[in-house]
Write a structure and sequence with these properties.
The strands form two sheets. The chain has a four-stranded mixed sheet. Strands 1-2 form a two-stranded antiparallel sheet. The chain folds into two domains: about 130 residues, no CATH class; about 80 residues, Glutaredoxin (3-Layer(aba) Sandwich), CATH 3.40.30.10. Helix content is about 55%, strand content about 10%. Helix 1 packs antiparallel against helix 2 and helix 2 runs antiparallel to helix 4. The protein is elongated, with a radius of gyration of 21 Å. It has about 240 residues and is an alpha+beta fold.
Length: about 240
């Protein structure tokens, strides 16, 4: 079976990430936290928190599980689905906070609390590693959607931002996407196949539009009326 070649450089294309990278990291965190619970050697929580913190602060090159995936596993098995890197990064931030709290609790002699926090990390990390359901990622997406509702974003798209000087002849789909995002490519191919007009906005090249319209995750896609009013949200 041919190996899918790498399309996103893991150390340069930081807006996106191969989804197998976070799952490798979640496997290490989940197994490590489980070992700490079974053996009672709680300093493992501190080591896991330190590793997550180093990756968050200094980048993927300092995330050992990420390095193992990108430098050893990905060249052998090929690239997986490329996704927006912000949700898994937020999940790592949540894991860092909870593991740090578990460590502090153990240092303070609150063994039960520390163990409960460690068990939470082990459960959610292993759930993500095994099933792909990332609780922290969904927390990020829900929070992004709530922020969008609160600030009343994406009620209208300025046709001038799309390079259009006049009203559209009919409805169109505006897709805020990243050229390396697998789901973005699939969504846009589906829109084209349906015969609907597609206007694609590359958020890597037009970051000001991503900020203007509060695009917190890609793909984000909406159906707009000829005057730019948002009629429906398709993704994001």
């Amino acid at each position: 079976m041919p190996v899918r070649p790498r399309t996103a450089d893991p150390y340069r294309d930081l807006d996106v990430i191969d989804s197998r990278g976070p799952r490798t990291n979640q496997t290490v965190v989940g197994v490590g936290a489980l070992i700490a619970l079974v053996t009672g050697w709680w300093p493992i929580f501190a080591l896991l928190a330190l590793q997550l913190g180093a990756g968050l602060r200094f980048g993927r090159r300092y995330c050992l599980p990420c390095r193992f995936y990108f430098d050893v596993l990905q060249p052998r098995f090929g690239e997986g689905t490329v996704e927006d890197s912000r949700p898994p990064r937020f999940a790592n931030q949540v894991g860092f906070v909870v593991l740090t709290a578990a460590t502090v609790a153990h240092v303070a002699g609150l063994t039960l609390l520390g163990s409960l926090l460690g068990a939470l990390v082990a459960t959610l990390a292993l759930l993500a590693a095994i099933t792909g359901f990332c609780t922290g990622c969904w927390m990020y997406r829900i929070g992004a959607r709530l922020r969008g509702v609160r600030t009343r974003q994406l009620h209208r798209v300025d046709l001038g931002d799309l390079g259009l000087d006049s009203a559209l002849a009919g409805e169109a789909v505006v897709s805020f996407s990243h050229p390396l995002c697998t789901d973005c490519q699939a969504l846009e191919a589906e829109v084209r196949a349906s015969g609907r007009r597609l206007v694609s906005v590359d958020v890597r090249a037009q970051r000001h539009l991503a900020r203007k319209y509060g695009v917190a995750v890609v793909p984000t896609a909406v159906t707009i009326a000829p005057d730019g009013r948002v009629l429906a949200r398709l993704a994001g």
